[in-house]
Amino acid sequence: MVHPWVFTLLALAVGSSTTFANTFTVTVEAINGDRKPVAKADVALFWNAANGAMKSAAEGTAVTGLDGKAVLRVDDWNERRPVLVLSADRTLGAIIGVSKADDGKEVIAPLGKTVRVRGKIECKELNQKPPWVNTMVTVEGFRAPFVQNMSTSATFEFMLPAGKYTLRTNGTDVETVKQTVTVDHSECDLGTTDMKATPMAKLRGKTLPDWVIADARGVKSGVKLSDYRGKWVYIEFWGFW
What we know:
Immunoglobulin-like, 10% helix
């Protein structure tokens, strides 16, 4: 017998694939300040930043030709999506918005000077740097993030065109933090961000709270966890889903 939730998962999977199969194409034309075409510019819906380098994701990306144009295929999310365009040397960039309404059309991307945005992460409560953090960036006017920086050195660094951005950072043993920054035409060093420790991280290494078991099989009512001190106790948390 196949459980009903298996059919539910299959239906969701089929529905999701159908949704993302609904794509459209838009021609992005990258131009510089003199309105001349910028060749070999990367055009992408999502980027990964690592060690100071900006790399476009494998999917949803294109490269402009000598005419400065590139055809980009976009999954339709029923919303305007940000597209980051960066010159090959990453010194010029622009963010444009595209939606289903732009299907088959040309959209101009006027590239301006990019700015290096960097920062560090620490957790004073734990007196350490988080061993892993991920910072994702959204630009004003859009919901979806367009670039992320996964780091094991508690740092982040991006090359971004001028604009207003929200940086959302999460990590191991720390609470998620948001910060808004306006990028102009000078390097933006956000300094060190202090992230609060999660409740679980603050309890690590300390004595477990003395839970009282109200009802359970195999033990008497009112038994305490401390009754098993010195013994291995296996606790499974579960939900009906």
